[in-house]
């Protein structure tokens, strides 16, 4: 994680449960500190220079996770689950917009 923050790499943490490790808190909250002409981020006991191209992604295999409000404030949650009915509705909307744009 330290090298990713320092060199602006992307990190993917897979199979996350409903409770996140407290060690991730500075990264999730982006607790940046001004240091000279740039910023630093404290990870554990180390202070690492922050590169603005750094990205951190979390994925879960839980079908319907329930995160605490504290966790929900720290992250952006996207639900990529697609149902058959939802897909049909999206396709119908696309068809109608092509066939009858006035609607």
Topology diagram in text:
Elements: H1 2-7, E1 10-13, H2 25-28, E2 32-35, E3 38-43, E4 46-50, E5 55-58, H3 69-74, H4 84-99
Parallel strand pairs: 1-5
Antiparallel strand pairs: 2-3, 3-4
Beta content comes to: 15-25%
Fraction of helical residues: 25-40%
Q: Separation of termini? A: 49 Å
Number of helices: 4
- In CATH terms, what is the architecture? 3-Layer(aba) Sandwich
The total domain count is: 1
Radius of gyration over all CA atoms, rounded: 20 Å
What is the N-to-C succession of helices and strands? HEHEEEEHH
The order of strands across the largest sheet is: 2-3-4
CATH fold-level label: Rossmann fold
Report the structural category: alpha+beta
- Biggest pleated-sheet summary: 3 strands, antiparallel
Describe the structure.
By secondary structure, this protein is of the alpha+beta class. It has a single domain (2-99), classed as 3-Layer(aba) Sandwich (Rossmann fold), CATH 3.40.50.300. It has four helices and five strands, in the order αβαββββαα. The strands form two sheets. It has a three-stranded antiparallel beta sheet with strand order 2-3-4. The chain is elongated and about 60 Å long. The chain starts with a helix and ends with a helix. The mean pLDDT is 90.
């Amino acid at each position: 994680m330290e090298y990713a923050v320092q060199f602006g790499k992307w990190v993917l943490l897979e199979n996350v449960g409903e409770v996140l490790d407290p060690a991730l808190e500075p990264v999730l909250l982006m607790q940046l500190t001004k240091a000279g002409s740039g910023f630093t981020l404290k990870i554990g006991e180390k202070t690492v220079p922050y590169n603005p191209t750094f990205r951190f992604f979390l994925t879960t295999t839980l079908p319907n996770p329930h995160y605490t409000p504290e966790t929900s404030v720290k992250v952006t949650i996207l639900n990529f689950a697609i149902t058959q009915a939802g897909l049909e509705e999206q396709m119908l909307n696309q068809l109608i917009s092509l066939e009858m744009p006035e609607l």
